[in-house]
Amino acid sequence: MASMLAHTVRNCPVNSSWAANLTARSLSSTSHLQAQVQPKTKKTLSKTGVKNVVLVEGVRTPFLLSGTAYNDLMPHDLARAAFQGLLTRTSLPKDAVDYIIYGTVIQEVKTSNVAREAALGAGFSEKTPAHTVTMACISSNQAMTTGVGLIASGQCDTVVAGGVEFMSDVPIRHSRKMRKTLLSLNKAKTMGQRLALLGKLRLDFFAPELPAVAEFSTSETMGHSADRLAAAFGVTRLEQDEFALRSHTLAKKAQDAGLLSDVIKFKVPGRDTITADNGIRPSSMEQMGKLKAAFVKPHGTVTAANSSFLTDGASAVLLMSEEKALAMGYKPKAYLRDFVYVSQDPKDQLLLGPTYGTPKVLEKSGLTMADIDVFEFHEAFAGQIIANMKAMDSDWFAQTYIGKKSKVGAPPMEKFNNWGGSLSLGHPFGATGCRLVTTAANRMIKEGGQYAVVAACAAGGLGHAMIVEAYPQ
């Protein structure tokens, strides 16, 4: 880590005006969102002998801060709502789906295969198989690409994929000692055996095991990793706060302009109908500057204001072979093209998935950064995003860690997360991937682009990147 710090600071000098200029440029560029733009004409990434897989539609429930309006629900309730919203928007016959795949991270034990339970609740045919995947923050990315594989291989024509996360009510376990005692108690055959086991109970047996957003391999929380990563790349607190303000400001503009069209209404039983994300809160640099370090105290730079927040929400997408979509009368939004998964050291490079994934997927598809019109990257932390930008813009990092002769280059900010990102919209772990892909497709339709790169980091040092190609309009 010390070596990385020395080289990256030398090759990517700190400039506190970087984020300010970034914010000004990106905000001034949003005027182009107000009018439809004709797409550019470039080569298509269609491959001979391989089925074209299309994104027909994508929806999501409003993403809410955990502990708010969804507080009394369960994960399958949100997943069911996303499924029903997708069915309503597409008028898809429920028995037309060949397979359902859903992602989640912190599983509710009562509905461990939440894909199946939510599908049944939404009214899908009981003959439609469904399974649940987990891959940390890229769980719904994995759900989608699994669906792409099923369609491309000819196994299926129609797949529904998505993801859900419900942080308002996470499983809390008894301690291991208590679990062992209770299991033994259940097997005891006589009263004497039961009393003997009860006599072994101690006060510390009753201490619960709380889930933690921490790496099993390193025991370090992701916030600590983000703080160390920011330090390694010389990312200042000012840069992080300015980037977070950019995210919230752009998300609010997009929300007010009606651009977040993937959001569906959701009537919470016993409460009002929820129509919008509730974590979008543009603040001021002065207010954000008052917050203390959240993880590395007292001198860390990662705070609650420049981090994504614990979120409840669900997403769903309809994927089809192009032939099937057209035969059923649909106008697809986009093609899902090449994708890659990457992994690296979960301690020092936990959050650098986009840096490793982007050049790899570009090389695989034969594209360059100049060909990309839309970038949608997951914003776990402002420091994580800026660190990735600096790593992608460093020849030394490319040569030392990625095995490339030169840098891939950082995404131009006028093309980057123009409708906000996870810092402002929210980040339900299992659902964010589908939001990224749907937003990329919707932005290309609105802005006239042809290619998008979707990228995300994930716990375990994992990462994902995908090329999304706009469908001819």
TrEMBL record:
It comes from the Eukaryota. CDD domains: thiolase. GO terms for biological process: fatty acid beta-oxidation. Residues 53-323 form the Thiolase N-terminal domain. Pathway: Lipid metabolism; fatty acid beta-oxidation. Keywords: Acetylation, Acyltransferase, Endoplasmic reticulum, Fatty acid metabolism, Lipid metabolism, Membrane, Mitochondrion, Mitochondrion inner membrane, Mitochondrion outer membrane, Transferase, Transit peptide. InterPro entries: Thiolase (IPR002155), Thiolase-like (IPR016039), Thiolase_acyl_enz_int_AS (IPR020615), Thiolase_AS (IPR020610), Thiolase_C (IPR020617), Thiolase_CS (IPR020613), Thiolase_N (IPR020616). Belongs to the thiolase-like superfamily. Thiolase family. Heterotetramer of 2 alpha/HADHA and 2 beta/HADHB subunits; forms the mitochondrial trifunctional enzyme. Also purified as higher order heterooligomers including a 4 alpha/HADHA and 4 beta/HADHB heterooligomer which physiological significance remains unclear. The mitochondrial trifunctional enzyme interacts with MTLN. Interacts with RSAD2/viperin. This is Trifunctional enzyme subunit beta, mitochondrial. The lineage of its organism: Eukaryota, Metazoa, Chordata, Craniata, Vertebrata. The gene is HADHB.
